[in-house]
Each structure stands twice: as structure tokens, then as C-alpha cells.
Amino acid sequence: MAQRVAVVSGGTGGLGTAICTALADRGCKVFAADIAGDPARGDAFRAATAGRDIAAAALDVTDFDACAALVSGIEREHGGIDILVNAAGITRDTTLRKMDKAQWDAVLSVNLDGVFNLTRAAIDGMLARGFGRVVNISSVNGQTGQFGQANYSAAKAGMHGFTMALAREVARKGVTVNSISPGYCETAMVMAMPEEIRAGIVDKVPVGRLGRPDEIARAVAFLAADDAGFITGANLPVNGGLFMSF
Question: What gap in Å lies between CA 229 and CA 237, rounded to an integer?
């Protein structure tokens, strides 16, 4: 079987790095698509992924044409994209009464428009080849809502609506589309919270701890596998029991 090619948006972040590593360790050629930024973040990414078949690719997911160009280039050089993981995300937290339009637009543009931009570019090739795995990284807060996150919660809930609709459109062509909703994990964003707030969150998690990025990555690898073809339109919660539903 030919080597699978994967693209992970937000690929140099905490979750993104773990996802890239998990896919590469399962034999994929991985492109970590992320906005050029903090050199220290780039150094940490390279150190964490050293020796694996992972390449960094500069990308602003809010730029529709740039997403199309990235996909086109990978398809031209490597024959196509088999796995797309939409993991790029930002927060601009404040209550709605204090939220300005720029804070709303920034979060929706990255967290939801970015999913459309990359998936729209990649989906035709997946359909033409008769195989594809799209995994969208949503959030427990898209399921429950969160104080001060009307923008983030709306984007993450919208992401799963996108997942279900697209899953219905492409299921007969060998392409699956699923979401993962992580709970609070040991990422830079969560660890930057004041310790007492973080402790309060952990108190509400039945398993009694934060998640690890590799636990989210393991779920991505499961849904992205060749033999996961009968799972589509699903949302997989990986939250330590913080939110339970059926």
C-alpha cells in the first residue's frame, strides 16, 4: 500500500504536534500546516518531531487561496492528500457584552472558516481517488458552552454541524468525516491559566486530571485509519468524563 499523506492544520501547536507525531509513527507522510510565528514554537516542534517524516508548511487557514495553493502543491508532488486534520484554533475570550466584532471575527475565521477553506480544497481529490479521512478538532465547550466563549463555542459547535453535513455528502465515495471534542488538556493555553482556575477545572473532571495531547492524537489516528471506514458523521468526546451524552 502506498504511503498515506496527511495534512494537519495548527500542526506546530501542542495538540497539533502530538497529532503529527502519531500519524507519522503510523507510517504517514505528514505536513504540519501552521502560520509562521514564534521561533521558539518552531524549535520545540522540530525537536519533538525529529527523525519522523514530518514537514512544516507555512499557512494562514483564513486565506482561502493559500489553502487551495497548499493542497494543489501537495497533490502535485505527492499524488494527493489522504488525511486532513483541521486542528487550527484560537481563543479571544470575553463575555458577549464586552466582545467586539474583531474578537468574534478572528475566532470564527480561524476556527470555522479555516475548516471550510482547507476541506474545500482537499475534498475533490479525496473523492476522485475514492479514499479520504477528514477529522475536525472541535471542543467540549462546543457541546456545553462556556462562560466568556460565545465566539469559540459557536465555532466549535458549527464545526460539528459541518462534519455531519459533509459526511452525508461524501460517504458513498470512501471518504469519512468525523469530529473529536477534547476536554481540557495539558497544552500551553490551558497551562497558562491561573493555577486555582486550572485546579477548579480538574475538580470537575471525573478522571481527576487534565488530558494529554497524545490521548487526543490517539483518537485522531483511530479515526484516520484505513479500517475506520464505517465511522462517519460522529463526534468522539475525549474529555475525561467532563461531559457525557449519547
Answer: 19
Catalytic residue among 152, 156, 158, 224: 152
**Residue 124 corresponds to which amino acid?**
D
Question: pLDDT per residue over 88-130, tens digit each?
Answer: 999 999 999 999 999 999 999 999 999 999 999 999 999 999 9
The model carries a pTM of: 0.96
Residue with cell string 465566539? 151
Annotated active-site residue 184? The verdict is no
Beta bridge mates, 33:
9, 57
Enumerate domains of the chain plus CATH numbers.
5-232 (3.40.50.720)
Which burial class, exposed, middle or buried, applies to 154 when counting CB atoms under 10 A from its CB (0-12, 13-18, 19+)? Answer: middle
Which three cell numbers mark 79? 499524488
Helix axes 213-224, 14-25, angle to 10 degrees: 50
- Three cell numbers at 116? 471550510
Structural contact between residues 31 and 74, judged by C-beta atoms closer than 8 angstroms: yes
For residue 245, give the 3-state DSSP assignment: coil
Residue-wise pLDDT for 152-163, tens only, equals 999 999 999 999
